[in-house]
Amino acid sequence: MTLVNKLVLSSFQFHMVFFMLAAQAFGSVALMVLANRVGLNVKYRAMNKRDARTWFPVACSQALMLYTGGKALEYLNVPLFTVFKNLTIIAVAYGEKWVFKAAVTSLMLVSFGMMVMSSMVGAWNDMTFNGWGYFWMSTNCLASATFVIHMRKVIKQDFDTVYFNNLLTLPLYVVLSLVQEDWSGFVDYYSDKANAVELNSFARGIFISGIAAFAISYCSPWCLRTTSSTTYSMIGALNKLPIALFAMMWFPDPVTAGGVLAVLLGFGAGLVYTHAKNVQKQAQPSGSQVLPPPISMDRLDQTARPDEAEHPSNK
């Protein structure tokens, strides 16, 4: 997803962040409806007023997270983006400590220190320093932490989460794109037949991003529901190493020894954190949990909630 977003937002003449996000939200909703219609096991509840009130703050925090991430990718190269994204894990961990009373162990603090060190090394070796890039990256870290903690508080079923989040953010992205982005210049530029090849590449990138958005929209709440917000963020940190390596090969950004060291430090921090969570789990009394237990999908299927009786699921 990071690589697709970087491609769409930095490889073409126009950087249409809101348009890309609208296409991703539309793709997620359309794929869910299509899967439901062809008989796949994709079930989601029709949205009601209570759901809209509950999920609208989550949708807004998701919109802010995606927008600030897109803006950061405009100015920062992918390896540096992935390094600084690790700082979100620290914000999430202390957010969980405040909201869910989760513990932060000394070994976890070691992994957090490694994350901070990797970010400092990455910033020190940034050959194309851009103040706006660091501003958007900092905002994205805070927005991402807010999103994952808030979503964990309200998440019930995975497909409901995908459907509600994307359905609520779609009109928001469309309006912001029409108001903020240069559509007249976009249409004029791509109306020229000389730019037809670039337009086709742009359309393919948007299409692929819509499919990737659906996949990540489903996998993210599933991971949050079955594990914890901090574990979800750390899994995201562990996949940053292959992402950074592919980005170094695909994009023309400068590659430095310090940048590679920063990525490796961030990956090592992920391994240390994983070990810390395993140690914490082993030391935990049998039957207790660090966070509230995930909701059983079987129990949700067997016991309908009161508002589901009034608004039955689509089948």
Task: Outline the fold blueprint.
Blueprint: H1 2-10, H2 17-37, H3 49-75, H4 78-85, H5 87-99, H6 106-124, H7 131-154, H8 158-180, H9 183-191, H10 196-226, H11 229-238, H12 240-250, H13 257-283, H14 297-302, H15 306-310
Helix pairs in contact: 1-3, 1-10, 2-8, 2-10, 3-7, 3-8, 4-12, 4-13, 5-7, 5-11, 6-13, 8-10, 11-13
| Quantity of strands, as a count | 0
Please count the helical segments: 15
Overall average pLDDT = 77
Rounded Rg:
20 Å
Q: Which percent range fits the helix content? A: over 70%
What characteristic shape results from the CA principal axes?
globular
> How would a crystallographer describe the biggest sheet?
none
Q: Helices and strands: which structural class?
A: mainly alpha
Task: Give the structure's gist in a few sentences.
Helix content is 77%, strand content 0%. It has helices at residues 2-10, 17-37, 49-75, 78-85, 87-99, 106-124, 131-154, 158-180, 183-191, 196-226, 229-238, 240-250, 257-283, 297-302, 306-310. Helix 2 (17-37) crosses helix 10 (196-226), helix 4 runs parallel beside helix 13 and helix 5 packs antiparallel against helix 11 (229-238).
